[in-house]
Amino acid sequence: MIKALFFKEWIKLRYFWCIPFILAGAALTDYHLTFKGVLSMHGAVDTWNGLIFKESIYFGSLQWAFIFGGIWLASVQMAPECVGKRLRLLFHLPVNAIQALAVQAFTGLGLMVLVFCAASVGFALINRYHGLPPELSTPMFKTLLPWGLAGLTSWCATAAAIADPSFKRKICYALAGFAYISLLTGGRGFAPMNNSIWLYAAACLPWIPAVGAAALRVKEGE
After folding, report:
1. Which of 42, 76, 139, 221 supports an S-S bond with 191, CB 3.0-4.6 Å?
2. Does pLDDT of 92 surpass 60?
3. Nearest to 189 by CA among 22, 34, 11, 58
């Protein structure tokens, strides 16, 4: 049965799963070209001074790639389930509802983790290509961590907003998700949440059961 549930997710995602990876690839390309352009225009000395003393961020497009990637995956996964009351039909099938919802969450969040890992590898290769030392590349990478959490949160908030049958709660999920994402992406400089990243990660955990709670309200007939 688990295999059948994963196959259902694959049917929905088979043409669309690559979009978040494409977005991340485009963001990395933008970072590489932007950094290369800054080096050509200002020279190595001024560019390095900007990185060391001003902590200039030339890879900000990655945060939007993670956020929109999460929104896209959640929409592709949940929107078909909520058309024609199909989600309610799911709860009348001979399958555990929690199990079915867990497969959806595992698939979506798992893909978002893969997107983040692939982007991190690309980010490290670009930094190495431009000769950035680990002492500088490491805090730059830590800047991506809350952005990755923002991508996971965007998936959860979008999935919950789509699944919940109440329009008012849809708005609440969307606003709460926006607040969380703004908090996670609002830092300045490199590694703004270096000392509290695990705290922020723990604060995002309630979003996972929130998706299940929103979907189960369909079963309750709200």
Report:
1. 139
2. no
3. 58
